[in-house]
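REVIEWER CHECKLIST
Item 1: Sequence provided? yes
Item 2: Single chain? yes
Item 3: Sequence as submitted:
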Amino acid sequence: MPFDIRGLRYPTLMLVAACSLWAASGGAAVTVMTQNMDAGTDLKFVLAYINSSTPTTGIDLTYQEVANNNFAARAEILAREIKTAAPDLVSLQEVTTWSKGPSADVQVPFVDQLSLLQDALSAAGAEYSVVKQQFLTAMALPMSDNTFLGFVDSNVVLARKGVATSHATAGQFADILRVPTNLGLLVAPDGWISVDVTVGSETFTFVDTHLVSPIAGFPQIEQLQAAQATELATTFAGSTHIVIAGDFNSNAAHTPPERTPSVAIMTGSGFIDAWPVVNHGNPGYTWPAYLEDPPAPHPNGPYERIDFVFERGFSVRSVERVGWNGPHASDHAGVVAVLKF
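Item 4: Structure as written out by the authors:
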């Protein structure tokens, strides 16, 4: 990050946790967190080779990258961060299951990020339950050894024990990425989860979302992302107390590479970007902590803020980044916000 907050981060988050349900003035408050868990690859090897004469090369390289990724250790780090911040609700994106098998239909999972995180939370003494999991992209692609590598992506909402939730639902965006390839049409949907949350006598809507990631040289994907942001803003236009948290793949500074209009669409629709309300002059970069394909330290450090907590109907008490200083749970920092009714 642009400055070192290691000496202040955990005491600050303990204070955030302490005021999670009731602010000092006596008004109801809620603490929310968003975190992209990182699938362990950006799938750039797959994209680089899929329309070549040897498409399995990219899939082999992706398998090696994923197999060498220490998902269990990253889940333990994230569990500790969640326990320290003690959010009432957690918005998770890129919660993936990786599998391998003799065919696209016969697969054996070897990584389940949600199960790893649940185990790590339990071991850390942090009591959280899954409110809803939304399955999105699902594919299985051939490798050179005649087996298939399977991948399932999802969004997940967690709730801390004692937090009252109801009416959990999910929606898939009408505009989704479809990529014609030599191996057939690859379809990568994105979407959102919505749940009603009651804190004391107050009820609000909590939304977890993940918008499509732009690809350099393909402006139509930026347009697709903007359509998703417009649909999201329209879907929840009537909510008076709402939090929309997630990975928007749209840079708050409107600079490359994620220079897309999605953030402006959200703020122009009446949703408040919580970060700058209380962090004046701090760019709050959340990505990337490291590089993938192949994995390596990032030479230029973080340079984008693409993970957001948007709100309507609250006052913003604090917003913090978590998980930025290594060892990292993800290539994204998490964002924790305390909001008061």
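Item 5: Key structural point noted by reviewer: Residues 172 and 244 are 15 Å apart (CA to CA).
Item 6: Recommendation: ____
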